[in-house]
Amino acid sequence: MKRREDSAAIPETMMRLIKLLAATSAVLSCALATPGAHAQNYPVKPIKLVVPYPPSGIGDTAARDIALNLAQRLGQPVIVENKPGASQMIGAEFVAKSAPDGYTLFLGSLSSLVLNIAAQKNLPYDPFKDFAPVSLAFTTPLYLVVNPSLPVKSVADLIAYARGNPGKLSFGSIGAGSSLHLTAEMFKSMTGTDMVHIPYKGSMPALSDLVGGQIQLVFDVGTSALPLVHGGRLRVLGVTSKTRASGTPDIPPIADTVPGFDASFWFGIVAPAGVPQPIIDKLSTELRAILRQPALREKFRSSGVELTGSTPAEMTAQMKADLPIWQEVQRKAGISPE
């Protein structure tokens, strides 16, 4: 009788084992599904593009145009979410800690992905480990503008005046270690001039004091500085790109006077580390197509903004190439992490 019970138990045990193996196989099939399959269906819901700047600035404006075009190409909304503050660290940390599914992207920049490494003591993210580069998006030079009362009309004039008046000129920036600050520090180092840094909480207060004569010069983006130049309230001496910016061909590059000077600043799209590579590649391909559109390129060119586009590998290479250059500028300027 016992043998019959054992015999009856065998089929039941086998059935349980078969069901367990089937369930395990199903789970593994889902887990091991090719990333390409995910990319083929991606996206199936709205995408969030986090911008670490307040609304209406050049970063926000460009991001919204890119988001609109990306939504049209992908067939899903791309929603811009502004998360400004703390030298762009609030937005960057938020994205770094987001799910690596391709539905949260970040508008990174030279500042957030390179300069912050040396400028911030407790950086809450690792730009090289916590993000997956997607594509460079655009570059913008800065413009060297001065108060019209300053007796200089060229970069050469400014250098001569600064050397003759060491420590008497002051320049404003949006904060210690910022791109605007470090550009001025690079200029000081390469020209052997001594000027005093005055940090502000934003571009507008710095430009306001420049117009008012409290400071003498500022390096700033074209969208902020050039309207004041066109209105006769400031004088522009040069542009920080190594060649003339296509949108402002009448403004000479500082490099004409200071050989080797080059301080153009890039912005790019990154995702949290761990997003499947086929999704990264799909986003990169779509972004490059968008950024090549003649109408969109022309829209931003008048402000000195050049739409670029790149592969993920090219963006990674850009980050790695820029890091030692700007770390050296920071070292020479004596800038310590804050």
UniProtKB/TrEMBL annotation:
Instruction: Tell me the keywords, alphabetical order.
Output: Receptor, Signal
Q: Enumerate the CDD domains for this protein.
A: PBP2_Bug27
- Kindly provide the name given to this protein in its UniProt entry: Tripartite-type tricarboxylate transporter receptor subunit TctC
Say yes or no: keyword Coiled coil present.
no
Q: Which family does it belong to?
A: Belongs to the UPF0065 (bug) family.
Residues making up the signal peptide according to the UniProt record:
1-39
The record's listing under Gene3D superfamilies reads: Bordetella uptake gene, domain 1, Periplasmic binding protein-like II
